[in-house]
């Protein structure tokens, strides 16, 4: 019972921290010159530096879907379902979740350990002593940077996933480019793109807020720094999977 109460309090604390971060965006926009570099560097690290692994995964997933699903659907005379299958797997489901996993592995650990190190070294106290709000200076640019980067990575993943599928289709089946992409566009609906973007925003929020909270939660021991990174990764994985399932279920109930 006590563990349940503590978990319930932590959920409310996280929601309050998220609300405080959203409120800090207004001040961040007004005084963006002071923290603009942090935002740019966060996008550079989370989005640009992750393009390589994202490209590889997107091409591999797109190719795998075509290689595995193509012969099966052709065998039952349902080859047109391939385009719907590609959109469901790449754009609607795998794209947001796999890019979230990439960001968790790279940025969640980095953000949590960086902030934990700032707490241990009394850097956060130094900010407060000179009148700088650590939420606006530390949390907000990382929240915006991770969320924006995750949306961009997701769109990038979808584009390269569909392109990878076309390369395989062209290699094995000699599918004309205009026919392939016209078929993709005819099966792609705005609701698919909207769900994908909503998932990316939700995952970006979970990853960034979770990493920042775990970073700030350390006390004074340097041994707590790697622990904060591990907690940020494990909690981000768990919550992203849960939210992904919930959003997919709501999508199929409401829109399909």
Uncertain spans, ≥5 residues at pLDDT below 50? none
**Rg computed from alpha carbons, rounded to a whole number of angstroms:** 21 Å
Count of DSSP-assigned helices:
9
Q: Termini separation (Å)? A: 39 Å
Keywords:
88% helix, single chain, mainly alpha, elongated
Could you characterize what this model shows?
The chain has 256 residues and is mostly helical. It has one domain (2-254). 88% of the residues lie in helices and 0% in strands. The chain is built from nine helices and no strands. Helix 3 (51-75) runs parallel beside helix 6 (134-173). The protein is elongated. The chain starts with a helix and ends with a helix. The mean pLDDT is 84.
Describe, in short, the structure shown.
The chain is mostly helical. Helix content is 88%, strand content 0%.
Task: Summarize the helices and strands and which ones pair or pack.
Elements: H1 2-30, H2 32-46, H3 51-75, H4 81-120, H5 123-129, H6 134-173, H7 177-187, H8 190-216, H9 224-254
Helix pairs in contact: 1-2, 1-6, 1-8, 2-6, 3-4, 3-6, 4-6, 4-7, 4-8, 4-9, 6-8, 8-9
């Amino acid at each position: 019972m006590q563990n349940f109460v503590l978990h319930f309090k932590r959920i409310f604390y996280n929601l309050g921290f998220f609300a405080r971060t959203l409120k800090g965006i207004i001040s961040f926009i007004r005084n963006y010159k002071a923290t603009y570099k942090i935002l740019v560097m966060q996008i550079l690290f989370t989005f640009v530096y992750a393009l390589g692994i994202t490209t590889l995964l997107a091409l591999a997933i797109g190719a795998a879907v075509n290689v595995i699903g193509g012969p099966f659907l052709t065998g039952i005379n349902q080859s047109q379902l391939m385009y719907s299958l590609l959109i469901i797997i790449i754009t609607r489901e795998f794209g947001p979740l796999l890019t979230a996993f990439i960001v968790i592995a790279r940025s969640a650990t980095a953000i949590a350990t960086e902030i934990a190190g700032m707490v241990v070294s009394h850097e956060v106290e130094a900010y407060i002593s000179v009148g700088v709000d650590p939420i606006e200076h530390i949390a907000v640019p990382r929240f915006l940077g991770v969320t924006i980067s995750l949306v961009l990575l997701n769109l990038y993943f979808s584009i390269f996933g569909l392109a990878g599928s076309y390369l395989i289709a062209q290699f094995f089946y000699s599918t004309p480019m205009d026919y392939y992409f016209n078929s993709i566009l005819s099966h792609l609906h705005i609701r698919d793109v909207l769900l994908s973007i909503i998932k990316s925003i939700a995952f970006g929020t979970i990853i960034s807020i979770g990493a920042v909270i775990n970073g700030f939660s350390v006390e004074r021991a340097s041994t707590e720094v790697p622990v904060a990174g591990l907690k940020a990764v494990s909690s981000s994985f768990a919550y992203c999977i849960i939210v992904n399932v919930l959003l997919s279920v709501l999508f199929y109930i409401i829109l399909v």
